[in-house]
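At your convenience, could you comment on the folded chain following this short note?
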Amino acid sequence: VQLQASGGGLVQAGGSLRLSCAASGRTFSNYHMGWFRQAPGKEREFVAAITWHGGTTYYADSVKGRFTISRDNAKNTAYLQMISLKPEDTAVYYCAAAITAVELTAVLGYNYWGQGTLVTVSS
């Protein structure tokens, strides 16, 4: 499956953005989806994940209550709604697809990755 992330940009602290991850090539609903981010000089970290049917979601503690992951299987797209953004949310955000739900909060749990979209939050 090919993944294309979009929706990043520059936003002031306290603002909002919605990231999209469009999938193509294989049946989108076969995959669990996740969002990760990587800030300069730091390792890629888990942000949020959603199971194939959307029934279960997972969040990093740092984004709970501010970010919401969702998916539309009819549109082959996953989303990450981000509100109350903080400067420390600045990073390249990646979407990823996993065949199994064994390790949805870990980089190693995913089989396919998109190219990333940059989110910059100014103070």
